[in-house]
Amino acid sequence: MKIKPKKSLGQNFLIDRNILKIISDNGNIKSNNTIVEIGPGSGNLTRFLIDENPKKIITIEKDKNLVKELKIKFHDKINLINDDFLKVDLNFLRNENIIFFGNLPFNISSQILIKLIKLKIEGFKIDKLILMFQKEVAERIIANHDTNQYGRLSIISQWCMNIVKIKDIKPSSFYPTPKVDSTLLSFVPKQNYLKLEKIKTLEHVTNVFFNLRRKMVRKPMNILFEDANKISEKLQINLNSRPQNISCINYYKICEEYEKLLY
Ligand code: SAH
Known about the structure:
Rossmann fold, 9 strands, 20% strand, alpha/beta
């Protein structure tokens, strides 16, 4: 059967064997690892992952035609789940030492990343994530404060993950050729990070700040706190700066103060 790629599902299959090898090598896969591949597509990366002999490989693919092909190609070498990754209940993975891989469908890549961060917060044992993003999204994920790319996605992603850029990848490494450049990122969960009661706090606080991206932070601070002056003095935040000038760690501390009001 010939595979006709579906644009609506973000199907750009990786065809460059050098890149596939780089992705698989960066996982540093051990024999006790359970591999979860998000959107295996035609199985180009899957083949490299099988060669690393992990404990098991679970693939989650939305397109049922591709799942049929994968079954023919790999038989019982992999476990196939035909579902939307954003909807699938992953609790059966609670006791596994997981490495997630994915050349992600770009239209939902941020949502997928947020779901993975939530798993880490809920105590899943995640060794690593090796994920491909559209280059602009990757730049937002790894951005530092005082840059234009810095925003909610940077702050939420960097909260509990150390993130390293592995490589920019050219459109010619994919079929069909996408219109955008891609970037491969590696995420390793942090042992120590500022614990919060709920990731929702971080989502809410960054939302309040970045909805007012061009305004001075005096405004969002006043929305969140009755005594914004006292809190900003304590955290040494200049109320005349803009949301993109506040460092990640200060956002986490703002969340900590905000949770003191709630719980
Ligand atoms: N990993 C493959 C394919 C990448 S393209 C390769 O590198 O060659 C993205 C893949 O994600 C496609 O196979 C697409 O069908 C799948 N996909 C898209 N939306 C999905 C979703 N919500 N859940 C799971 N898979 C999805």
